[in-house]
Amino acid sequence: MPATSTLPKCLQGQPGPRPDEVKVDLATLFGTEALDAINPGLFVAVYDGHVQLMQGDATVDIGGGESAFGDGKALARLDKTPEFVLDDIYPRPSRIDPATLQLLEQVEECRVQ
């Protein structure tokens, strides 16, 4: 189908901008940073689902297979998950036994500030 400069009638008058006119910062959405050193802070690895990290006005969204780091100054999506996070002894949700579940039921919410 040849490209056209006019929209089909079914798309005319729709609210919001055309998708091809929306400016997207790909570095913010998909950019990663290498971890040069292990500094104090919060490391998050997501194995399934989605996590959003927020710090001030900064937000990093990570999904399954991704990891991120925050140190109180900046947030970053990491290019690879550090080995010490992959080898973490705390159970992943797929490995929770009844004793761990009982412990987790005592914790209502975890919030790092």
Précis, in short:
By secondary structure, the chain is α+β, with helices and mostly antiparallel strands. Helix content is 15%, strand content 21%.
Structural features:
alpha+beta, 15% helix, elongated, three-stranded antiparallel β-sheet, two-stranded antiparallel sheet, 5 strands, 113 residues, 3 helices
Describe the structure.
The protein is an alpha+beta fold and 113 residues long. The chain has one domain. The chain contains three helices and five strands; from the N terminus they run αβββββαα. The strands form two sheets. A three-stranded antiparallel beta sheet has the order 1-4-5, with no helix packed on it. It has a two-stranded antiparallel ribbon with strand order 2-3. A hairpin with a 2-residue loop joins β2 (50-55) and β3 (58-63). The radius of gyration is 20 Å and the shape is elongated. The N and C termini lie far apart (53 Å).
Topology of this structure?
Layout: H1 26-30, E1 42-45, E2 50-55, E3 58-63, E4 67-70, E5 75-78, H2 83-86, H3 98-105
Antiparallel strand pairs: 1-4, 2-3, 4-5
Radius of gyration: 20 Å
What value does the average pLDDT take? 79
Tally of individual helices:
3
Order of helices and strands: HEEEEEHH
Count the beta strands: 5
Low-confidence stretches: none
Number of domains: 1
Distance between the termini: 53 Å
Helix percentage range: 10-25%
Structural classification: alpha+beta
Percentage of residues in DSSP E strands: 15-25%
The major sheet is characterized as: 3 strands, antiparallel
What shape does the CA trace take?
elongated
Give the spatial strand order of the biggest sheet: 1-4-5
